[in-house]
Known about the structure:
mainly alpha
Amino acid sequence: MTAAMEMGAARQQGMQNIGETAKASGVSAKMIRHYEAIGLIEPAVRTDAGYRVYRQRDVDVLRFIHRSRELGFSLEQIKTLLALWRDKQRASKDVRAMARVHIEELDRKIADMQAMKRTLETLATRCHGDERPECPILDDLSLG
């Protein structure tokens, strides 16, 4: 059976190739392969020719991961969230607790970034921005 025939048969079973899965999920083919390599997602079903094919449930998992990444969750946190998502007996308080911890982490990161911004604004204001070589920005960076 040719590769094209294999893909045709896979499509009849509701499967799609990695490119189609990437488009449907919003996750690049490269990241899909990476997530498989690190065990975040189950290994793809493969055709006899070795092509990866995916079911709708795989697309759903990848969408979940994509949205979790958009919200800034780490891969380790996503593993936990996926386990909670799959566990229909879970307590929602566990998910909420994870979200609250993540919110605190985001608040710290935001505060750190705001401090960086203020420092750079001060340094940029002190820099003459002319033809002279003196530069408070570079001077500050050299102190680090």
